[in-house]
Amino acid sequence: MSAALVLGRARRSVLVIDEAMPRHLVTRESHGFLTRDGVSPSDLRKVAREQIAAYPTVHFIQEKAVRAEGSDGEFVIGTNSGESYRARKLLFATGMKDLPLGIEGLDEVYGKSAYVCPYCDGWEMQDRRIAIIAGSAFGMHLTRTVSGWTNDLALFTNGEALTDDDKEQLARRSIPVFETAIRRIESEEGETRSIVLEDGTEIERTAIFFAPKLEPGSDLPTVLGCDTADSGAMIVDEFGRSNTAGVFGAGDGASQKYQVAAAVAAGSMTAAMLNSELLEADWEMV
Ligand SMILES: Cc1cc2nc3c(=O)[nH]c(=O)nc-3n(C[C@H](O)[C@H](O)[C@H](O)COP(=O)(O)OP(=O)(O)OC[C@H]3O[C@@H](n4cnc5c(N)ncnc54)[C@H](O)[C@@H]3O)c2cc1C
Question: Residue 280 sits in which domain range?
Fold first, then answer.
């Protein structure tokens, strides 16, 4: 939407095909974006849509893009309703999707007392009895990061083994570690109460930060030949250009920054570069 705003202001004809299932819809408040701290994700989108409506060349359809073909200057995108749309350029801001972690009870607390990003929700969870649920290497990183928001931490590796060095580091800081697989998370109305392990041990906790499993929101960039990183995200340069001419990427699906501010900044910058390519092509045609 950030790209649509910039392109609308550049008098470009823009079609935003959006299934409207952003990743943060699960959460009640979005934090850390200057001037919009604490608004709900749906409010964030609503205001964006209202402001973009001032630019008559930008149109929205709530559909899923399921087909992409063509090359720079003459792409075709097909949607789930069977419609096709022609476009000179394509910009994928299709985000990332959460894959199930298979932990019973996690869905009930996700976005209410279980989060993935301390910079987004650490303030709200500060000083709680926090469980970190993450495998060995990332678990240590996440535990160290969340230690900035509480002194009461416990690391749950859900069946993965930690190294002796990791265990020694945690012991020195009096952070308990549980390597047994998790059976379920107990909660009440979204508030985490405890973590129950496969051996029956129950550990009281009132919040969770966990490492999600993610996949790209769309595989269409790959269909068009765009290179991707191990995370599945599109590989783009600082102006959002992929290796496929005319195909751009911005936001979570083309970075690992996972912040609204970063996605908005990337959308804006990428739109300017996309417009610049169109201006250059039109200039050369005369
Ligand atoms: C629980 C949680 C809490 C968060 N809290 C914060 C916070 O407080 N502050 C913050 O800065 N960040 C937060 N984030 C991160 C933030 O949500 C993302 O960084 C941001 O939403 C990325 O924007 P995006 O446009 O790249 O992707 P998204 O917001 O995920 O949007 C992608 C859009 O593309 C659509 N789409 C995907 N594929 C297709 C297709 N084939 N056809 C049509 N549409 C498609 C999706 O439906 C979706 O609407 C949070 C994330 C989570 C999971």
Answer: 2-97+213-285
